[in-house]
UniProtKB/TrEMBL annotation:
CDD domains: ABC_KpsT_Wzt (cd03220). The keyword Transferase does not apply. This is ABC transporter ATP-binding protein. Residues 1-22 are annotated as: Disordered. Belongs to the ABC transporter superfamily. Residues 57-272 form the ABC transporter domain. InterPro entries: AAA+_ATPase (IPR003593), ABC_transporter-like_ATP-bd (IPR003439), ABC_transpr_TagH-like (IPR015860), Bact_Polysacc_Export_ATP-bd (IPR050683), P-loop_NTPase (IPR027417). The keyword Acetylation does not apply. GO terms for molecular function: ATP binding. The lineage of its organism: Bacteria, Bacillati, Actinomycetota, Actinomycetes, Streptosporangiales. Keywords: ATP-binding, Nucleotide-binding, Transport. Pfam families: ABC_tran. Residues 1-10 have a biased composition (Basic and acidic residues). It comes from Actinoallomurus spadix.
């Protein structure tokens, strides 16, 4: 990494590879604190096929369950996100971006370290899990209720959600299984955006949207940033990250490579990976 870049951004890996201690800026309001976070997935039955022979061998060897493989997906990450931050998370496939978001949402228990959030984190699409067999209309109502809105609030917001999603005429009355992936993600985003969130986590949800929808989403994210604490966005499209984020975390093999302002980190990432 170029020395000039190192000077501009806080590089989060200590020389021995361990996560440095978190330092909180006393002049800003911390919303998410990730402190030396480690996440390990345990995959059971990774050692072989689940057939009768293998089961017999396990009995003979007195193994009482299939072999287990550990995947150390997050290997000591520390950072602080402050009020008003829109944080982009970039990295190659399998680098740990989605795992980091799930951990911030509280869906994965840390093996070591911790995640502290001021307020309730919402992972887009999970908090309002939509149902394929129900119409868009029913999903809006159920999704908004699932996010904690009252029936009157849902009624008041309904038209706004439909307008924001901007589906073709008549689609809102069709079951969601009839939607394209882009239409599904528009509706998911529109539902999530109907409520202000303390911490909003968006994982690739905008990837399938077209340019016009991305522009609308950016305006919405800016609005949410003002009301909410912080927004995190995972995306492979670096354009979305450049448009929507003021700060970027570059993740590789479960570690933070760089944490800094958007252009500096994205430029360094492009230079390093050629993407
Ligand atoms: N449920 C799971 N069980 C076991 N291992 C998993 C699971 N989910 C992810 N992993 C592993 O954890 C590591 C990080 O995966 P993760 O999905 O967080 O990466 P990512 O950066 O979001 O990837 P992509 O860009 O492909 O979506 C990978 O090695 C992956 O194989």
């Amino acid at each position: 990494m170029a020395d000039a870049v190192k000077e501009k951004v806080k590089v989060s890996s200590a020389p021995d590879g361990s996560a440095p201690p978190v330092v909180i800026d006393p002049n800003r309001e911390p919303i998410v604190v990730v402190d030396d976070l480690h996440i390990i997935y345990r995959v059971y039955g990774a050692g072989g096929k689940g057939n009768a022979n293998n089961a017999l061998m396990r009995i003979v060897r007195r193994q009482n369950r299939p072999s287990m493989k550990e995947v150390h997906a997050i290997r000591g990450m520390s950072f602080v996100a402050y009020k008003g931050d829109a944080v982009g998370v970039i990295g190659t496939n399998g680098s740990g971006k989605s795992t980091l978001l799930k951990a911030i949402a509280g869906l994965l228990p840390p093996q070591q370290g911790g995640v502290y959030t001021a307020g309730q984190p919402s992972l887009l699409g999970v908090n309002a899990a939509l149902m394929n067999d129900l119409t868009g209309e029913r999903n809006i109502v159920l999704g908004c209720l699932a996010m904690g809105m009252g029936p009157d609030e849902v009624k008041a917001k309904y038209d706004e959600v439909v307008k924001f999603a901007g589906l073709k005429d008549g689609f809102i009355q069709l079951p969601m299984r009839a939607y394209s992936s882009g239409m599904g993600s528009r509706l998911r985003f529109a539902i999530a955006a109907a409520k202000s969130h303390d911490v909003l986590l968006i994982d690739e949800a905008l990837a399938t949207g077209d340019a016009k929808f991305r522009r609308k989403s950016k305006a919405k994210i800016d609005e949410l940033r003002k009301e909410a604490g912080a927004v995190f966005l995972v995306a492979h499209q670096l354009d979305s990250i450049r448009e929507m984020c003021n700060r970027v975390l570059w993740v590789d093999e479960g570690r933070l490579v760089m944490d800094g302002d958007t252009d500096t980190v994205v430029d360094a990432y492009v230079e390093a990976t050629g993407k």
